[in-house]
Amino acid sequence: MARLDTQSKLEILADAAKYDASCASSGGQKRSSMGGKGMGSTTGSGICHSYAPDGRCISLLKILLTNSCIFDCHYCINRKSSNVRRARFSVEEVVQLTLNFYKRNYIEGLFLSSGIIKSPDYTMEQLVGVARTLREVHDFRGYIHLKTIPDADPELVEAAGRYADRVSINVELPTKKGLAELAPEKDEKRIEGAMGAMRHHILDAKDAKKRYRHAPRFAASGQSTQMIVGADGASDGAIVTRAKGLYDGFGLRRVYYSAFSPIPDPSAVLPLKRPPLMREHRLYQSDWLMRFYGFAPQEVIAATDDKGMLPLDIDPKLAWALKFREHFPVDVNRAGKEQLLRVPGLGTRAVGRILASRRHRRLRLDDVARLTVSIAKVRPFITAEDWRPTHLTDRADLRAQLAPPPAQLDLFDTPRPKAA
């Protein structure tokens, strides 16, 4: 490996880290250096390319320790056989970069992952060494997210949780078959074993905190994972089922989805083009339905087509409502929270506002319109004091009316997915 300066390494390893989506967090431990001790702070809000509830954009220094790797996973641009420029940071270089970026108010913390160098244990020692140096030597109080390695010694993985706010272990692919075909050096049982051990440590730390006031925190933001979408033949239904199993089995805070992106010198077993980015977006929406709207995975799967794929032109909540119209219309003045959450176009905030407002008066359609973003999507599925959809809910062309109209693409313009 040629000797590179820090700037060159940063360009290579920050670019290599862009494929990892699981770098947002919530619920982290609140720390501050306002008392004159230590450096940095964290608010526990959403972090890394996202926005806090008060509108602030919060960011992390998101890098790999190295993009060299002894594994040869077909879908990974940093795999052993990939023809890419390699670089590697030392522990001290990552520590100084983090401190210098923080002092310049560029970041609020660090997201650190790595390819596997020498061995899983050696790599994990390096990752933990960065977090330990920041916390113990420099008293850094900002946010730290470490990507852990399931093949590493369990004591090293546990050490990551003592210094990081959040830890994550990637399941990589949604099915055991896909993992065996595209990442034969990785094992589903080892991955799930490491995730199970991490959950055990997190629960033990929470229990100790209840009993002992000064008990140390352990990965206060919990653990997350990421799976690649579109690299194998897994359907959306299989992905939804897998995600629900991960949430229930390991108490994850988030499951992230990353649409497969073609890489230089691809393996012959990979698809030739990436899946639509909208597919990734629909999977996130289905994730929200299960986490915040009370949908069971079987109900989300019921909204898929005969191949198990979610529709791309409409969101999964609307797809479910169109398929099961017998549940509608819903009376906004009498329905419970669970029924209102299933109405297309009504989010959790809108439902909360409806429940609060109807304590004082019976709601009319105009009242609902003021509490929602788009009354056009809501109207066919509700009744109000002055509104009945009559035959609108049962119209055969209702989907065509509610789906976004097709857009004419410019010959020389690259289409971009609209923001959620």
From TrEMBL:
InterPro entries: Aldolase_TIM (IPR013785), DNA_rSAM_put (IPR023874), Elp3/MiaA/NifB-like_rSAM (IPR006638), Endo/Exo/Phosphatase_dom_1 (IPR051675), rSAM (IPR007197), rSAM_sf (IPR058240), RuvA_2-like (IPR010994). It comes from the Bacteria. Keywords: Iron, Iron-sulfur, Metal-binding, S-adenosyl-L-methionine. Its cofactor is [4Fe-4S] cluster. Gene3D superfamilies: Aldolase class I. Residues 53-296 form the Radical SAM core domain. The keyword rRNA-binding does not apply. PROSITE patterns: RADICAL_SAM. The keyword Hydrolase does not apply. GO terms for molecular function: catalytic activity; iron-sulfur cluster binding; metal ion binding. PANTHER family: ENDONUCLEASE/EXONUCLEASE/PHOSPHATASE FAMILY DOMAIN-CONTAINING PROTEIN 1 (PTHR21180), TYPE II SECRETION SYSTEM PROTEIN K (PTHR21180:SF9). This is DNA modification/repair radical SAM protein. It comes from Sphingomicrobium sediminis.
